[in-house]
Specification:
about 350 residues; alpha/beta; Rossmann fold; 2 domains; ten-stranded mixed beta sheet; five-stranded parallel beta sheet; 10 helices; 15 strands; about 25% strand; elongated
């Protein structure tokens, strides 16, 4: 029996499709919008949580199932947790994990066994939300297949009836509603977190290995900072108008020099809209409300004043450094370290010291 999926595209009123009755939705970034019968599925490797884990748990009203090695210890790092189920498993095996998760979701939260052949809906079935981390994106479609439910990938907000999906580089938001449970992935940086303020209830679930055909993990390679998704980058060096409008080096040369510095520091390169519009950086590197939302451990802003459009894509970096000639600009005001100097001059000095004088022509 099929479960209808309704689509609607924001900004295109002539393409409206039927919707369910109106209900509360999240109005802005920074507030979790989940509710109802939803559970976060958090894959854990060696006690390390994936990017976006806390946001995913918040979107699921504090309900989470942690699976993997060191899952119980990792749960202590989740500030939004209210109710927690833990499945201890060995090395990451997506096919086996999906099969085991599906069995437990059938038993504990009701899926296949709750389908009434005379009704067009599931009763008592929970939807699953995974972080859109590498493991989350890998596990989600397998779990959706095992459960026989729709997959809503790349969400910026999830409710018990559907999700808002980011498309075309987040320039288009698709409103998707599902009559029944589903599996969704939540983009890192899409929502905020608010500490639960209570000790979570923890339930241990028994893990039974399956004989599913699976790939063997030989090694886990760190992402290349030059090509890594900015939303997942732990370190970012960002170029603004103050870096690219100088006389020497030129805008494109300054960004190229920043890229060399990024390689030396294992950092990814970001940019403001002014820089991408001028053609000095690819649009995939653009950070802001019309670009990528980031939340790195380290963010160094070279010549970025901090316009609202750019700040809108900047989450809560652990360490924010501003390099700008204006000591009172918004970026310097919110930084942990403000360096009042010419951004280009500092870039050249850092490049010569960390990369070599050949990169600056010195």
């Amino acid at each position: 029996m099929g479960r209808p999926v309704h689509y609607g595209r924001r900004g295109a009123p002539d393409r409206r499709l039927p919707y369910a009755a109106p209900r509360a939705r999240r109005g802005d970034r920074g507030t979790s919008g989940g509710g109802g019968d939803m559970i976060a599925i958090i894959p854990v490797r060696d006690g390390v949580l994936p990017l976006g884990a806390d946001e995913t748990v918040a979107e699921s009203s504090g309900n989470a199932l942690l699976i993997g090695s060191g899952a119980k210890a990792a749960g202590a790092e989740l500030t939004t947790l209210r109710r927690c189920w833990v499945m201890a498993a060995d090395a990451y095996a997506p096919a086996a994990w999906a099969s085991g998760l599906a069995r437990n979701m059938d038993a504990y939260w009701g899926h296949r066994g709750r389908l009434d052949p005379n009704m067009d809906a599931y009763w008592g079935a929970w939807s699953a939300v995974l972080p859109a981390s590498p493991d989350g994106r890998d596990l989600a479609p397998r779990l959706a297949f095992e459960l026989g439910v729709p997959l809503l990938a790349g969400a910026i907000a999830v409710t018990e009836h559907g999700a808002q999906l980011a498309r075309w580089g987040s320039r288009v938001i698709d409103e998707v509603e599902v009559d029944g449970p589903f599996v969704a992935t939540l983009l890192p940086g899409a929502g905020g977190t608010e500490p639960a303020g209570v000790a979570p209830e923890i339930t241990k679930l028994r893990w039974e290995a399956t004989q599913a055909m699976d790939a063997e993990v030989l090694d886990v390679l760190p992402p290349d900072p030059r090509t890594a998704d900015l939303a997942e980058a732990p370190r970012i060096l960002a170029a603004g108008a103050g870096l690219t409008r100088g006389n020497a080096p030129s805008g494109s040369d300054a960004v190229a020099m920043l890229e060399k510095l990024g390689e030396a520091l294992s950092a990814s390169i970001g940019a403001t809209r002014v820089v991408t519009d001028a053609g000095h950086a690819d649009y995939r590197r653009q950070i802001g409300t019309t670009g990528v939302v980031v939340n790195p451990e380290l963010y160094v802003a070279f010549g970025i004043s901090g316009a609202a459009q750019h700040i809108g894509g900047l989450g809560s970096p652990d360490n924010l450094v501003s390099v700008n000639t204006d000591p009172s600009c918004p970026m310097t005001a919110r930084s942990d370290l403000g360096i009042v100097t010419d951004a280009t001059a500092l870039l050249v000095e850092l490049a010569e010291r960390l990369v070599g004088k050949e990169v600056t022509g010195g």
